Amino acid sequence: MTETPPITVLADDTAYAEAVQLAVDSAAAYYADGTSTLDDDAYDRLVRGIQAYEEAHPEAVLPSSPTGKVAGGAVVGDVPHTVPMLSLDNVFGAEQLADWAAGLERRLGRPVTVWSVEPKLDGLAISARYRHGRLTQLVTRGDGNAGEDVSHAIGTIVGLPDRLADAVTVELRGEVMMTASQFEEACAKRQAHDGTTFANPRSAAAGTLRTRERPYVCELTFFGYGVVPSPDDQSDLATSLRELPHSQIMDWVAGQGVQTTAATPVAGIVADTLERVQERIGEIAAARPELPFGIDGIVIKCDLAADQAEAGFSSRAPRWAVAYKLPATEKITKLLRVEWNTGRTGVIAPRAVLEPVELDGSIVTYATLHNVADITRRGLMLGDSVTVYKAGDVIPRVEAPVVHLRTGDEQPIPIPQACPSCGDAIDSSQERWRCVRGRACRAIASIIYAVGRDQLDIEGLAENRIKQFLDAGLISDFADLFFLTRDQLLGLERMGETSTDNLLAAIEQAKARPLSRVFAALGVRGTGRSMSRRIARHFATMDAIRAADAEAIQQVEGIGPEKAPVVVTELIELAPLIDKLVQAGVNMTEPGAMPPAEPGATPPAEGEPAPIGLPLASMSVVVTGAMTGPLASLSRNEVNELIERAGGKASSSVSAKTSMLVAGEKAGSKRTKAETLGVRIVSPEEFASQVSAFL
Ligand SMILES: NC(=O)c1ccc[n+]([C@@H]2O[C@H](COP(=O)([O-])OP(=O)(O)OC[C@H]3O[C@@H](n4cnc5c(N)ncnc54)[C@H](O)[C@@H]3O)[C@@H](O)[C@H]2O)c1
Ligand SMILES: [Zn+2]
Predict the structure, then answer these.
(1) DSSP string computed for 244-289
(2) Cα–Cα distance, 11 to 18 (Å, whole number)
(3) Is 44 in the pocket of ligand 1 (CB under 6 A)?
(4) d(Cα 328, Cα 297) in Å, to the nearest integer?
(5) Does 40 belong to an annotated binding site?
(6) I need a labelling partner for 289 at 20 to 30 A (CA). Which of 235, 309, 394, 659 fits?
């Protein structure tokens, strides 16, 4: 993570004035209905540029400048707040956070007693006023001093009940947003209504909250993060809400039946030290890609009311809290083309070709569009400006078109009428379209995958050979390879005695591969190499895997209720292929693994038993960078297999749960993250000596 974010450099007063105007217009659109022409990254760069210019030219500062103002000064309201609703100052890394904390402690003249750490929810701040336990008014943040009445939204916001548990008079503060599924639904409703859509969950929430008359209702979500008793309220409750630590206030809020982040994977916590704060930041950042709602950072607050009171406020933000910003996960770019490909399993998937854009540390050129229904639900068109989302290791995806940036030149996306690979018909009965020929459509791709280095690893079987065998009708799937005869091969062009014998020997060797690799070779949808290893370890035999129903499959770590039935269906479809492999004498067991206990027999152990006595027992290990020394010749998959042979768990992302990072040359963000989290880092050579017995 970079500590100094990029800025837009402004050359002179004219450029400065234009930048101020653009920022004010963008902020006005952003807070009004989410129709800014800039993505957040571009807006933030612009405002930092304005700030830098103002620091260098204090005499040129325009009164309309967005700097130092809540909502960039672009928003007004007519409902005064009892206590101002402020913004938050930002930091962009561990060092800046430490500087900020040191500054705060200098101001206090003593260390901060305890911190609270919670996600920075990416929605809109709202004040929810309750009288005698009943929700009576909703007010937006506005300019911080006065907001807009949006009480019409009462009753449409999940997590914000009409009635509290107690008949109390109090004001709750929190964030209104849309979850991923609420966003999907909102897009579909708007698409059906006027053929347009929302650009992203945040702008959908902004637009929805402020629109009074819409013929359709979109559901919103609320997470509370604060309580404000009325300043003249001297009741016991008001007094105790003024005096309790933030963490306990949040417990009280949850007790009133209001949603807080407590039940999410990124729940607020308290931390005694800045190290623990930093660790929690790492955990929240790591959880971000999997969350069903958007976060754009982590908020660090003084937990104790006394610390907060002593720290006080500036005109724009409290001094006792700060936002630790995470890199943007979304940018606006252009949809240039849509490509259609039939994958190994016969699934026909659209892929967006984008004007390249930098996002979360890499250049994004392609993004997934999932399926046809997804395109129509969003009303995407060629030439659209689109929001693209990418976080962590997830595949970038097109979120939605930015409808207010349309020029009128956009064109409908052509939808294929036949399989783009073989020209046969398309089975469109499911959301995921498939070629009617299924796996057979892309037999060559399936076979190339199956014999690849990380699966059956059959040496000397290049693509042109496979094509030759397919064309000659000798094989139709990879199981047929095991039945090839010497005479058949010698009858083909360019197959001499030596290459034939070498190939047959390589195929023979492949029969002995562990089940994890044989299973991976099947190319079951939704199971890659590491998932195949987990399945093989869990069930130990192919028979046990095939006997498992969806519920049993779900016992494997990382397989959820959505994936499990797909695996079961796939195994039924693959039954003839598996039977053929069994008949060929291909190994169907995982060395060293024990099949799961029969239900009702010995009491089942919680999770998988941790192998004892192995060097990496109960350790979670992540590998990054280029391997050197004894590991130099191993593929990443082979290193992961090695970790698991030695009793460890191979993982692809660094978190607080990581026991060790094996960092080779050119290790990048994973190394930085491990350093931040204090995860042990070893070189490939050190690691190799630790597990030499398993190499
Ligand atoms: N794209 C654009 O044109 C455009 C225009 C204006 C602003 N923006 C974006 O908005 C950001 C600035 O917005 P801002 O001034 O609303 O402030 P902010 O989003 O940086 O931070 C303050 C807000 O954080 C929210 N928040 C979330 N979780 C919280 C928690 N746990 N505790 C306390 N508060 C929490 C509150 O709503 C609070 O008002 C910019 O960084 C920019 O990315 C974009
Ligand atoms: Zn086809």
Answers:
(1) S-HHHHHHHHHHTT---GGGSTT--EEESSHHHHHHHHHHHHHHGG
(2) 11
(3) yes
(4) 9
(5) yes
(6) 659
- Considering every ligand atom, which ligand is closest to the CA of 27? 1
- CA-closest residue to ligand 1 atom 3: 26
Residue 322's DSSP bridge partners are 300
Pocket flag, ligand 1, residue 28 (CB < 6 Å): no
Contact 159, 331 (CB under 8 A): no
Classify domain 79-325 by CATH number: 3.30.470.30
Q: How far is the CA of 448 from the centre of ligand 2 (A)?
A: 17
Token representation of residue 608: 């998988």
**pLDDT tens digits for range 502-539:** 999 999 999 999 999 999 999 998 888 989 999 999 99
* DSSP for residue 568: H
Question: What pTM was estimated for this model as a whole?
Answer: 0.77
Local structure of 551: helix, strand or coil: helix
pLDDT tens column, 400-442: 999 999 999 999 999 999 999 999 999 999 889 999 999 999 9
Residue 392 pLDDT greater than 80, yes or no: no
Q: Are strands 620-624 and 649-651 parallel, antiparallel or unpaired?
A: parallel
3-state secondary structure of 471: helix
> For residue 105, what are the CA distances in angstroms to 99, 192, 306, 311?
10, 54, 13, 9
Residue nearest to atom 22 of ligand 1 (CA): 87
Cα(545) to ligand 2 centroid in Å equals: 29
Q: Give the active site residue among 69, 120, 189, 649.
A: 120
Q: Which ligand number lies closest to the CA of residue 423?
A: 2
User: Per the structure block, which two tokens stand in for 3?
Assistant: 């500590």
171 labeled part of a ligand binding site: no
Domain covering 330-427 in this structure, CATH number: 2.40.50.140
What is the interface pTM, i.e. ipTM, of the complex?
Answer: 0.97
Question: Given CA atoms 171, 176, 182, 185 in this order, what sign does their dihedral have?
Answer: positive
For ligand 1, is residue 117 a contact (CB within 6 Å)?
A: no
Q: Which helix (H) or strand (E) holds 489?
A: helix 486-490
φ, ψ of residue 397 to 5 degrees: the values are -135, 150
Q: How far is the centre of ligand 2, averaged over its atoms, from the C-alpha of 445 (Å)?
A: 12
Q: Which ligand approaches the C-alpha of residue 126 most closely?
A: 1
88 lines ligand 1 (CB under 6 A): yes
* CA 59 – ligand 2 centroid, Å: 68
Radius of gyration of the chain (CA): 29
- To the question of domain 515-584 being in CATH 1.10.150.20, the answer is yes
Told to judge if 69 belongs to the known catalytic residues of this protein, a careful annotator would answer: no
Q: Say if residue 413 is exposed, middle or buried (CB neighbours under 10 Å; 0-12, 13-18, 19+).
A: buried
What are the boundaries of each domain within the chain?
13-73, 79-325, 330-427, 439-510, 515-584, 620-694
> Cβ(47) to ligand 1 under 6 A?
no
